[in-house]
Protein 1
Amino acid sequence: MEPLNMEPVNPELEDQEPATETQIDGSLLEGGGQILRLSAALSCITGSAIKISNVRAGRSSPGLRPQHLSGLQLVSDLCGGVLQGATISSTDVTLTPGQIRAGNHTADTQTAGSVGLLLQVALPCALYADASSQLILKGGTNAEMAPQIDYTLKVFKPIVEKFGVNFDCDVRMRGYYPKGGGEVMVEVNPIKELQPVTMMERGNITKIHGRAFVAGVLPYRLAKDMAAAAVRTIRKEIKELYINIQSLQEKENATGNGNGIIIFAESSTGCMFAGSALGKKGVYADEIGFEAAEMLLRNIRHNGCVDEFLQDQLIIFMALAKGTSRIRTGAVTLHTQTAIHVAEQLTSAKFTISKSEDELSSGTYVIECEGSGAQNRSM
């Protein structure tokens, strides 16, 4: 008797002629992992196969790292897709997507790779599933060169909810460099389609708050020193607001040693901004507090409605929404230009960027997008 083939078969893929692949050059513009994440998510949602070449060509260690590989595998798992070339250090990878399906999906970087970046690639896909999805994401919760999980919850989440996105996120364990070991559980509810968003009026800053933390063997006074330095720095520019930065020592629900600070500012019109910094060996705590405060102030000064880190994260939602979105920002970052390039390549969305003519906001730009109106075919 022939042995049974237990490979998961996607009937949709079996009957189809091989689709023409969209070629994506992974070395363009920002040239990093962002191109991978955006391309994979949009391939999954639009159903179009992609081939990404020159993966992370501009980086000191080009090709896929564990972080990127686990993100690609997560997307492939979400849509029952077929991945080719998905190995560590590979510079060419192909994704042929199937149909997005709800369920429980786990991704583990097995390093301190960012869980925030795993969520960035998986969340848009899970929105187009046939029911709610549970994502278990493991890695670093507060990692360098990536959004801290606190940023995802306090800045990213309330703004993407304006598009109609609905997800819950439970931080079960925090994990720090170099071991990681963090875990978050995310529940994503599906949508029929995303709605466009207009964010043009910044309003006044009404609240500043944050958290300075230490974990593992590091002394509590580091948290207090980071918080005090941040408050002193912000006070020089914003004198009238009470600034509430909590100093925290994380014990039970954190693995590894780490310290850092993240500060949030909220405006009267519901805009959110942040500044953050993580501790490094040999860097004084007050320098870390100063760095985070300066980052926050820089993002408030331009009078735009989003900070430099949220700017590029909203591009995929603008591209998928049905209708015209308009968002006022500070200087347009290379990450944002890259996101727009990929979104226009893989969807019918059309973006325009124009300089603000308003005197108060002379350093700001308006990103406008006529979205592609992607529909959830399962609803």
Protein 2
Amino acid sequence: MSFSGATGPSEGLLWSSRPACREMESKVSEGGLNVTLTIRLLMHGKEVGSIIGKKGETVKKMREESGARINISEGNCPERIVTITGPTDAIFKAFAMIAYKFEEDITNSMSNSTATSKPPVTLRLVVPASQCGSLIGKGGSKIKEIRESTGAQVQVAGDMLPNSTERAVTISGTPDAIIQCVKQICVVMLESPPKGATIPYRPKPASTPVIFAGGQAYTIQGQYAIPHPDQLTKLHQLAMQQTPFTPLGQTTPAFPGEKLPLHSSEEAQNLMGQSSGLDASPPASTHELTIPNDLIGCIIGRQGTKINEIRQMSGAQIKIASATEGSSERQITITGTPANISLAQYLINARLTSEVTGMGAL
């Protein structure tokens, strides 16, 4: 969670004057404090789907009625970051709408359930670790005060989120309790701004190892290779028709739906382009491609969906250079192990092939 003044001078004044917490709480609660807040929430896919709604209607309504900006991170991850930005009153309106939407979802799910007790609404904030000490307070005094005054349960994770300097703060309770709790947390965060640079948490795609064998795509699950959905197999077959690369694994394909046993964990690792040593993964290398400008769109896809799919499937880092004036081509840089790079090239080539042959639905 980060906070910045709505105007330059007020931000400096805010930190230097340090008004009394009670006075600030009153102003924050009334939406009268002249600051712009940015609150980051961590949500699972189902929760995000509820916020977005059919054809994006729910999130559009939330944006319009609250006046807050609500942005949702890319969708190839089991977890998503929902960023809410705006003046205090807009932030709290958006928060209220989200909390009540989740309560509505719980109520609807209970109509088909035998459960008798209604579970609480739960939201997870993402907060810089440097601010968590202030939120907990000396001997846990502050977090205890927030729990008692709002009726909400508040828990601060002990560990930082992966590859970041942020922690998850979980809030549970009724929508009203959650809203009051968030207001008090905002007061604490305003009183104690982050110290030093914050490395934000970015959820990573759920990557399942993919191998190609006998023209069929498989995913690794334990000691078995499970046939992958037809779409990826078709992509691979298209790519194989156009590229000279050797498949990562050559074995007899299984019948549809049949599990293909892997004789050893070493074989599974070799099929995935990895060596059997624990720390002996092949060194990363870089490969560059040039793609005509008029075809780059089919590689990127709408809102970056296709390029994110390719990154997820291949495990490679893929960067697309910005368009340069007077150039008819764009440079793509692929970084990863040789197996990652090879698979990324397969998939990029498959996208190009499907565009050229009119098979863009693949």
Protein 3
Amino acid sequence: MSAASENALFGMGNPLLDISAVVDKDFLDKFGLKSNDQILAEDHHKTLFEEIAKKNDVEYHAGGATQNSVKVAQWMIQEPHRVATFFGCIGTDRFGEILKQKAREAHVDARYYEQSEQPTGTCAACINGSNRSLVANLAAAECYKKEKHLDLDGNWELVEKAKVYYIAGFFLTVSPESILKVAKHASENNKIFCTNLSAPFICQFFKERLMEVMPYVDILFGNETEAATFAEVLGFETDDIAEIAKKTQNLPKVNTKRQRVVVFTQGKDDTAATVGGGVTMFPVLEMDQNKIVDTNGAGDAFVGGFLSALVQEQALEECLRAAHYAANVIIKRVGCTFPEKPSFH
């Protein structure tokens, strides 16, 4: 039995229904899609989601960065169910109903804010041979309202029940005030607040919002590209990953009872993590590079594995071991999917 309890892990972010199916070259051409590309949907992609949903082999999964991570954490923990709570905004439509169903199947306690102005956010994975083209339509995900959801007593009680919080940087573009409310609660109650640099554009174009949250961050995740952009934006004047991690750790922090932990992944190279006053490199699991199917959900899975151990109060080394294991499983499969049970001991 795991040491985790129901609703101990709280996540908030942009929920997307992942819709994947095999498509032919004509389909890609019709919507002007390139192989292995990731784009945001434009007007001419509007019918794409309904069209791909009509394919025979269509698969649906609860997606979006934060939701992926809490889903992986729940999978790693297995029992009890609903260790992870998830907040985000969806539409009152067919895709929204499928998303609710998929979250239930993943044993995540998803409490969505439902509105009818925008449709449920979707991400189409158009698979063609060994390539896939991703088209995301955030839609409802961008309509989250703090006062209409997070502030409600029943919902805020779930926030108070949690011990560990994770909100990916993408949510800074949607509801920074919601992130701050949760981050301050964690800080004031000596709980653990985690976030992710998420993408270079977050560091570049949402720097002010990111830096407003940073004093409350206990654990910061990112990959080598995001770390380099973050260092550049803050004028660290170094491209050494360990040095960037160290400087990031030393940024101002409100809750001084916890030293900030910075974790930067580098694909197949060692993961850099701040340990005490220094930086330690943790090797990833050895694997045959030919077995890699899809690295797309690797970062989300890494965080999910880490959170699964963190919420069970494991040491940093153990959190990283779980993180590397989860990422290793996910990259051998299409999308952020996993077998029924983990073989992690």
